[in-house]
Amino acid sequence: MSVDDLLTIPLVPRPALSEALRLERAREFADELSLRRTVRAFSDEPVAREVIVECLRAAGSAPSGANQQPWRFVAVADPALKSKLREAAEAEEREFYNRRAPDEWLKALAPLGTDASKPFLEIAPWLIAVFYERFAVDANGARVKRYYPHESVGIACGMLLAALHRAGLATLTHTPSPMGFLNELLGRPKHEMPFLLLVVGHPAPGCRVPAINRLAVSEYATFL
Fold first, then answer.
1. Which domains does the chain have, with CATH numbers?
2. Whole-angstrom Cα distance, residue 92 to residue 96?
3. Rounded to two decimals, what is the model's pTM?
4. What is the pLDDT of residues 19-58, one digit of tens each?
């Protein structure tokens, strides 16, 4: 089957740019994203639901295997539900820090100052739970295979982080393990697998972050 045999529409044209303007825009975007930091101290300042909707709309434009769009996002602002999520997440985190984590992993985390206490899960105005579909279920209850769900949802999450940062918000990617409690507390079906719990809001006044360095492009990119 050729492209001519498929239902297609014209590509929406992008503005014509000079090479100088193209470079300027690329550099500005890279500079803006270079200021993104993982935040663990949040304020309870509200964030409008409409902002979250638009950032999720940006995430939903991500490419996906066979255009199956296997991502599912659950945005939580309800204080009681956030409290339950914190309780469940901290229970798993205590197991991780006290029993499951190997010494090598704990040593890697030590410079970041993390521990089993996760107050930001209640303080931040929004938690966004991200799930990927292992498979879909059609109208007849039959399984439908999903292609590259991990990769697709990972790309969508990257675009979501960029959109939230662009909107002036702080984020934390939280991955308690295991995360099955997210299905239970958020009422998600078993064929949806927890991928990430994203904390979203404004940094607390006087917020401080670990002094870390990022690799230079020359250290992680090769041009041939």
1. 49-204 (3.40.109.10)
2. 6
3. 0.92
4. 999 999 999 999 999 999 999 999 999 999 999 999 999 9
